[in-house]
Amino acid sequence: MRRHSTRSTRIAPITPPTPAERVHSILHSAQSMTVISDGCHTEIHRLDGMGTGHIHLHAPSQEAPVSPRERRPVRLEFTDIAPTAVRDRLRARVTVTGLLTAPYSDESPKSTCMEFGQALLEDGQGRHFVSLDELCSATPDPIAGSEAAMLTHLVDSHRELVPLLVRLVQPQPTKGMSRAVPLAMDRYGVTLRLEYPTTHLDVRLPFATPVSDIDQAGSQIRGLLAAARRASHRNRLFA
Fold this sequence. Notes:
By secondary structure, the chain is of the alpha+beta class. The protein has helices spanning about 20-30, 130-135, 145-155, 160-165, 215-230, and strands at about 30-35, 40-45, 55-60, 70-80, 90-100, 110-125, 125-130, 180-185, 190-195, 200-205. Helix content is about 20%, strand content about 30%. The strands form 2 sheets. Strands 1, 2, 3, 4, 5, 6 and 7 form a 7-stranded mixed sheet that branches. The protein has a 3-stranded antiparallel sheet with strand order 8-9-10. The longest helix has 14 residues, at about 215-230. It is elongated and about 65 Å long.
């Protein structure tokens, strides 16, 4: 009797970034923020590095004591917007609160020290508070700075590959889905947004192993595509 072998598609465990990792990535890749202090709202654009502009974050114990009267409450607000044209592009909000040791001015050539209080991440999963220790301990995501370019390149130049990735969605999307669009990418995998006429659903496709260097991202994406091609079922939603 001839033995028939079968090849199964192994799916990696779905591991989303921790709240601290998400906050770290949002601050790192932010292009703008709002500074609220002394009753003033200041919009800051063209951010670089950790996305805090002329504000330097530190723990209170790391600086010389300052008179309480000289400390000013401050709030930094960031919005995380999907780089692709999905429905409801707001992915998350991050609010960082603390105390300034001097009045804030975006025109000053010097950075203003900010005693970090806490960070608040608000997204579709709820509200998550992140401490400075958690933020400093978070593993930097090597994809964060390139995520927007990679997702827009996938949509603009390789749109035909997106339906292929849908084959990895388990369970398979129900009939009536209008389209699937890449929503996010991080060191752990890719998130697709499945859009229906009146709602949408976000699904994660995990990489085989987390990306530790940006040069590994391409091979991990090719791994997802190879797994999709090996999938035993056919995707009938994009006939």
